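Tutorial, part two.
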Amino acid sequence: FLNILRGAAYVCTDSFHGACFSILHRKRFMVFDRYAANAAHSKNARIDTLCESLSLTSRRFNGANLDVLAQPIDYLAVEHRLRALRKMSDAYLCAALEGL
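Running the prediction step on this input gives:
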């Protein structure tokens, strides 16, 4: 799976992990819904959170935005946001573990 993704020019996926690895490997990508928005077993929320946290909401397919695939992603800005999120996570974990 990862070797296919690493060699891809574009990634079209309906999975959270496909989106994560696309980001980590700096690929142009589009994420489709796998489940209906109101489905009880939907995993769309975690994909939405990922895209919103990294300002990549344009990469969520909305029915008419496939042209976004041709546009480059500013991965310097994405990595800056990732570093900030990791720093917040590290601080939270350190504070939580201090009480043990």
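The beta strands are 10-13, 28-31. In part three we will examine how such features are distributed along the chain.
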